[in-house]
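Progress report, Aim 2. The chain analyzed during this reporting quarter is listed below.
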Amino acid sequence: MHKKILLIVSILVISRFSYSQNLLAIPDTLSGTVFNLNIRDTNKVFYPGFTTNTFGINAAYLGPTLMLNKGDSISVTFYNQLMDTTTIHWHGMHVSAMNDGGPHITIPPISAWNPTFKVRDHAAMYWYHPHMHMMTNLHASLGAAGLVIVRDSTEATLNLPRRYGIDDFPLVIQSKCFDANKQIVIGNASDSVMMVNGTINPYLPVPAQVVRLRLLNASSERVYNLGFQGNLSFFQIGSDGGLLNAPVSLTRLRLAPGERAEILIDLSGKNGQNIYLKSFASELPNAIYGATQPGMGAGQTIPGYTANVLNGADFNILLLNVMSQTALPVTSIPSTLVNNTIWPVASANGFKTLTFSPVNPGPTAIQGPFLINNTSFDMNVVNYNIPLDNIEVWTLTNQSPIAHPFHIHDIQFYVTEINGAAPPANLAGRKDVILVPAMQTIKFITKFETFCDTMNMYMYHCHMLPHEDEGMMGQFVVSCPKVDVGVENILDETNAVTIYPNPAQHELHIKSSASDPIQGVVLRDLSGKILWSKQKICEAEQTINVESYSATLYILEVKTRSGIIQHQLIRSE
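Predicted structure tokens for the chain:
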């Protein structure tokens, strides 16, 4: 009888475990140089008996992982089958502004966008996601995102796990809020449901050897303090944009929205064990979304925040079920990785200071909106014009009561200072996101290289998506005046573009040849503010009505396949 009772109890425990845990979904992969991706309204069953409306890319939720090789030239066509306009941004990747997929480069419903570019990035994990102004949180939270894994010859020489789904696993970590009908709720502090790769309560069979986990925090706002059950040590080998100089031994890894990290954990000899990847949020300092208090004081809070069971608590993210070794296992951690060369601060020829602050000071300051340099995002204002090949030091000062993950497009940077001190080793690699704690200052150095384009903008912004949507964002162009002057001379000599009359009083006419049609036109005032613009024209003639503009000097930019011409325009009375 005693044995029968034990057997029944064992069966019940196993049944309960099987019901509550779900096998982790691993995104499909696409390889090669030509990709076709469909963004669509779809649905997914996250909870038995409920169908949740989602966005997907070639799938019901999230999209395929694109496997790219550094040096390859690729072509990607995104077909927007949504009932809404969207965009797709290549987060962390070094591409031209016209391929970057920011809020200006929209994909209307039932249309396509075809970015083409050469892969210039170091081996690492990047991602693609929507970047529609004021709609980023909605579109990304519903699932229109996917991963990019870049491989290069340097990483290939290292003895690292790289068999996707066998000993090398992507983990897209998100917290969600679902309503009573199990629909995803956007912009709600009750994001108390954890999922990985779109799987709730996930488990993952892993081999008893060195395993590589590629981590992405794709949550709208939540910061994670990652570690393993039992405080097992692990090694961080990579950050946002590439490998570190050497593995860094850790028991905790703080990961902010938009940030990525690659870690190795040695599971040798642990066959048959079950180990949780957890967030030790009880250890997060206040003034971070996910800590006990999101603000610096008890009175600074967010509606619904204190009722969220995840905030300030330790919770499970993913259960690792350790299984037998695979053939040809990796069983050791390398001592060195790559050689990251940082530009000397003394070589910098540009310096910028960005200050984060709330719109409304006082107890409700933490609820936003937030500003950068006392300014909210304006689609028509270029905040910075940066010369090509400038090496710059940016100083980020957070004067708000909550931490903000700062993200910049186009480039990777190196953190040089955190409150005047050198960064820890795991933050010393290539980065495109850095968490700036409340009332603290971080400096980084970077170089704006390869691409210049005064007609298309790159973004910088907070990667807490509600903050971004509410205007905590700015934009910059990278200019190449020497190239522009050369292009202008060539275009003038060949009469490829004709602009008349100048001065203009009523209408301004722009003409190009049929073989080299106009692709874009931008009219700016001398401060850089965009007064009129039109892209994707593909016509030989364009007319602008200038009657409503003041009599003064303006800058007209006309883009054709041959290049960009900058022209001074006078509006006469």
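The longest strand covers residues 34-44. The radius of gyration is 25 Å. These observations will guide the mutagenesis work planned for the next reporting period.
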